[in-house]
Amino acid sequence: MSHRRAADSQPSEALKTTKVTGPLGIIAGRGSLPVMIANAARADNVPVHIVGIQGEADSEIERFPHTWIKWGEVGKVFSALDKSGCKDLVIIGGVTRPHIKNVRIDFGAVKALPFLLSLRKGGDDRILSRIVRFFEQNGYRVHGAGDVLPELLVPEGTLTRLSPSADDKADMALAFKVVRALGQFDIGQAAVIASGYVLALEAAEGTDAMLERCAEIKRRGRSHGTGPGVLVKAPKPGQEERVDMPTIGPETMLKAAEAGLSGVAVAAQRVLIADYNRTLEIANERKLFIYGAPQEETDA
């Protein structure tokens, strides 16, 4: 499948899944990606069953065969997947670590207690790797969203009408180095650099909140007279990308515009884009660029 490159290009009408021919299980958190994957699977005649986490997944999942679960209902997850014949699995969408009082333990969770206790410690990367390993040990094949639906991956090159300037490229190069260095400590997937100055680094608050912080920094005149700045997103070194790929979407563009940035650069083929057309529409309206950086630029 060829990727979209031009700013005015359109996605293919039938998004084709790859690597999965049997029923596909989708464990869904927040956002539009779970439903996008389910739609693509349905268009490709691949049966799906969505397991939605209550308080996280969107009610749109109810357009498909689905099961709602609460945190801790491990047995219910396995039961839903097994009854649907799902051995191929995608875990997608944002989640918030639950408070212990909101965890509901079922019999399956009791059997998986050592695994659940292990999730109380460690950073996101370590926890997500344990989750993947847990499902694999129980006979499931865990796929990344980009493996199942390559159309979700940001391609190389400029996607928008505007392209990054030489100054933007310099900020991008520094930002990729910063994200890569901090990623070794399991800290964030994003940074904002302006004229070689670090405006913000992503931590537990997430990209949108980080961009809101950038906007506030500029409003208060604390950006040291720098240029507009660039948001960069990329996976951390050694990150379990099957369940935690960085993502951009319409909200990213709106927040970047509010922060007065010149654009967004991401690691090509390693970052997801939700709602492609709307994301590009907003970027073009707000005069932002979106750039997919090849590996020789992200790893320089």
Structure, described:
The protein has 11 helices and 13 strands. It has 300 residues and is an alpha/beta fold. The protein has a 6-stranded mixed sheet with strand order 6-13-11-9-7-8. The longest helix has 18 residues, at 166-183. This is UDP-2,3-diacylglucosamine pyrophosphatase. Residues 24-152 form the LpxI N-terminal domain. Residues 155-291 form the LpxI C-terminal domain.
Structure, briefly:
It is built from eleven helices and 13 strands. With 300 residues, the protein is α/β, with parallel strands linked by helices.
Radius of gyration: 20 Å
Q: Give the topology string: H per helix, E per strand.
A: EHEEHEHHHEHEHEEHEEHEEHEH
From the helix content, strand content and strand pairing, which structural class follows?
alpha/beta
CATH fold-level name of the largest domain: Cytidine Deaminase, domain 2
In CATH terms, the superfamily of the largest domain is: LpxI C-terminal catalytic domain
Proportion of residues in β-strands: 15-25%
Query: How many E strands?
Result: 13
Mind describing the biggest β-sheet?
6 strands, mixed
End-to-end gap: 28 Å
Overall pLDDT:
85
Q: Any idea of the CATH class of the largest domain?
A: Alpha Beta
InterPro entries: LpxI, LpxI_C, LpxI_C_sf, LpxI_N
Protein name: UDP-2,3-diacylglucosamine pyrophosphatase
Domain LpxI C-terminal: 155-291
Domain LpxI N-terminal: 24-152
